[in-house]
Automatic annotation (TrEMBL):
The keyword DNA repair does not apply. One of its GO terms (molecular function) is ribosomal small subunit binding. This is Sigma 54 modulation/S30EA ribosomal protein C-terminal domain-containing protein. Keywords: Translation regulation. It holds the Pfam family Ribosom_S30AE_C.
Length: 170
């Protein structure tokens, strides 16, 4: 399916990666990030053939966009405040997705919340204090309110070493 350029899709990046190591079976990888109003949808596929990877990632992105639309209309992702343009564009994608019936799909691998953590964000602190606090918590991230911007940020321990920062777009 195709989305018209009507302001729903803000940005789309596609990365095609070929691993030249002959021992790697699925050497053709494609990564797609679609930024739509309110979120980013990501999909990646690895296979022995780049054309197959492209076809598969297109189908995955289409399914994820349809799922996002359905959940948004059910009150997830900020409620039923979906704009007319966004709903229409996602409806077109849904119509192009296939001729099958409208069966309700239950994802057996859907994530389930198993623990809830609350953070006191009433007192702003510096990024340096948040990084320091990473050593004293039982997880690899620290949520805090930045003392310079008053925005909620997250510092986290990176798998590759070092510390990462997640902050709102300006």
């Amino acid at each position: 399916g195709k989305l018209r350029s009507n302001g729903v899709v803000k940005d789309c990046t596609v990365h095609l990666i070929v691993n030249k190591n002959p021992k790697v079976e699925n050497s053709h990888r494609i990564e797609v990030n679609v930024s739509i109003v309110g979120t980013t949808i990501h999909a990646s596929v690895e296979s022995p053939n780049m054309y197959a990877s492209i076809d598969d990632v297109g189908e995955r992105i289409a399914r994820k966009l349809v799922k996002y639309k359905e959940r948004r209309l059910q009150g997830w992702h900020g409620g039923k405040s979906m704009s007319e343009d966004m709903a229409q564009a996602l409806d077109e994608l849904d119509a192009n997705e296939g001729e099958g019936g409208q069966e309700e799909f239950t994802d057996p691998e859907a994530p389930e919340v198993t623990k809830v953590r609350s953070f006191d964000l009433s007192t702003p602190i510096s990024m340096e204090e948040a990084i320091f606090a990473l050593d004293y918590v039982d997880h690899d991230f620290y949520v805090y309110r930045d003392d310079k911007t008053d925005e909620v940020n997250v510092v986290y321990k990176r798998n590759a070493g070092g510390v990462g920062l997640v902050q709102p777009e300006q």
